[in-house]
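Quick one before lunch.
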Amino acid sequence: MTNASSPIELVTVPCLRDNYAFLVHNHATGDTALIDAPEATPIAATLAQRGWKLTDILLTHHHDDHVDGLATLRGGARVIGASADAHRLPPLDLAVAEGDLLHICGQTTHVIDVSGHTVGHIAFHMPDAALAFTGDSLMALGCGRLFEGSPAQMWKSLLKLRALPGETQICSGHEYTESNARFATSLDPANAALKLRVRAIEQTRAAGKPTVPSGLEEERQTNPFLRADDATLKAHLGLQQVPDEEVFAQIRASKDKF
Ligand code: ZN
Ligand code: FE
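Model of the zinc ion complex:
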């Protein structure tokens, strides 16, 4: 994706079975950032093909399927991850926390704590490029499983991401969208925007293409995990009087059993 006013290009790199890594390249400066390192081979191949060299590597969280390619890929790149997770991430050159401002590929980049899937999970937001790298927090029509954090913690994290500008592209860590779509439909069968989106997802997958990144505005309208405070969805679930974070907890628990 390149847009005329910005020299930034985003490349989505499929890795392992269903992971995504992302490359951000600034054509003016030549800088290249990698977000998450699931597997070295496909990422190294993409870099070689384009003649790009990594300047920065950003890690969203410590799980193997987000860091296993790092040792092979890091070279002289600056490796950035959460200070809260420094003890269980590969060695970091820069440890960051929510509120920190980075300059990556010429882009002002905000660090957001999105704990829930893990505690210490972070996201990176590049407002001028309208990109957010969310790892296993907010995903296309879904959100990460709660391995470490509480439902209340994940709901709070998702609300921060939901508040980003609607045009933000959500660059998340996995291709789980079709299964997420089946779950979302079971919960929210009358949602017209969801029905349209599910059809588009089927076509995209049938063509062998990634459904990631996805637009935040579309997520707000169709992702059930962002809609735990939506009156219509609450009513449909018979949970009108239930606090939002408890509705979120129930939605997350039913996805785990789906
Ligand atoms: Zn994970
Ligand atoms: Fe993952």
